[in-house]
């Protein structure tokens, strides 16, 4: 494995790690065409893939890819044996299998939310992968595994995110997880359907006070005391004056 090829692969992996939050173990979605080419060139996928990607990997496929190899007969028997050793990821076509190319592209959806690498020799899959941002593409040339450089769709997506024109998939996932942690992630229907319950609160203590009767301004307390003392003094003087009056003269008729 050449140092130059390893250096290019490392740079490409760093691009997907930084811009699309790829993490180990890397999930490699493989189809029958890749296994057939590996068998032809005597490439041990389980041994060489982790070395080339410089990290832990999970090799996986789909039920549709396995069914397709079964229908193609004995010519691809060896490729089917290799593909059966990998993990089978659940697809949406369990009852009605579809071509492997269609199935693999459906697993990527619109934004590759599960961060799959795709390993294929199928031109239909390759063309479809390059229309989806954030999908690393692996293929075999001669007797070596090659990680393709980021497609233009991925480069345009990263540029739009850097200019603030778009929110990255990683940011959307982090926002969603934060909302779930805080318990505020709800569906639109639930938000609209649930009515907000009013909390029962105690009455305002100020509202319980009796209302004061409206009247003139109350005189100051000092003036009231002064007037009371004055009245008591006058009353006392009248009482004393009444005791000193001479007794009335009684005349005989």
TrEMBL record:
<dbReference type="Pfam" id="PF24779">
    <property type="entry name" value="UTP23_sensor"/>
</dbReference>
<feature type="domain" description="UTP23 sensor motif region">
    <location>
        <begin position="194"/>
        <end position="213"/>
    </location>
</feature>
<dbReference type="InterPro" id="IPR006984">
    <property type="entry name" value="Fcf1/UTP23"/>
</dbReference>
<protein>
    <recommendedName>
        <fullName>rRNA-processing protein UTP23 homolog</fullName>
    </recommendedName>
</protein>
<feature type="region of interest" description="Disordered">
    <location>
        <begin position="174"/>
        <end position="253"/>
    </location>
</feature>
<keyword id="KW-0539">Nucleus</keyword>
<keyword id="KW-0698">rRNA processing</keyword>
<feature type="compositionally biased region" description="Basic and acidic residues">
    <location>
        <begin position="177"/>
        <end position="191"/>
    </location>
</feature>
<comment type="function">
    <text>Involved in rRNA-processing and ribosome biogenesis.</text>
</comment>
<dbReference type="GO" id="GO:0006364">
    <property type="term" value="P:rRNA processing"/>
</dbReference>
<keyword id="KW-0690">Ribosome biogenesis</keyword>
<dbReference type="Pfam" id="PF04900">
    <property type="entry name" value="Fcf1"/>
</dbReference>
<dbReference type="GO" id="GO:0032040">
    <property type="term" value="C:small-subunit processome"/>
</dbReference>
<dbReference type="InterPro" id="IPR029060">
    <property type="entry name" value="PIN-like_dom_sf"/>
</dbReference>
<comment type="similarity">
    <text>Belongs to the UTP23/FCF1 family. UTP23 subfamily.</text>
</comment>
<dbReference type="InterPro" id="IPR057776">
    <property type="entry name" value="UTP23_sensor"/>
</dbReference>
């Amino acid at each position: 494995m050449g140092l130059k090829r390893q250096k290019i692969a490392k740079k490409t992996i760093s691009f997907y790690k930084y811009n699309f939050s790829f993490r180990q173990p890397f999930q490699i979605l493989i189809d029958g065409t890749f296994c057939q080419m590996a068998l032809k060139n005597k490439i041990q996928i389980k041994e060489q893939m982790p070395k080339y990607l410089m990290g832990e990997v999970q090799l996986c496929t789909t039920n549709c890819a396995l069914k397709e190899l079964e229908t193609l007969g004995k010519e691809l028997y060896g490729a089917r044996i290799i593909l059966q050793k990998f993990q089978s990821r659940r697809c949406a076509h369990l009852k009605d299998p579809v071509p492997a190319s269609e199935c693999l592209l459906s697993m990527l959806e619109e934004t590759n939310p599960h961060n799959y690498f795709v390993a294929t020799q199928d031109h239909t899959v390759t063309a479809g992968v390059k229309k989806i941002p954030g999908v690393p593409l692996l293929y075999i040339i001669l007797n070596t595994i090659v990680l393709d450089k980021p497609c233009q769709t991925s480069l345009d997506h990263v540029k739009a995110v850097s200019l603030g024109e778009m929110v990255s998939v990683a940011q959307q996932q982090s926002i969603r997880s934060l909302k779930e942690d805080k318990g505020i992630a709800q569906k639109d229907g639930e938000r609209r359907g649930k009515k907000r319950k009013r909390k029962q609160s105690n009455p305002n203590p100020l509202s319980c006070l009796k209302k004061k009767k409206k009247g003139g301004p109350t005189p100051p307390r000092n003036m009231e005391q002064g007037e009371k003392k004055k009245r008591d003094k006058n009353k006392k003087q009248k009482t004393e004056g009444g005791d000193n009056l001479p007794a009335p003269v009684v005349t005989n008729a």
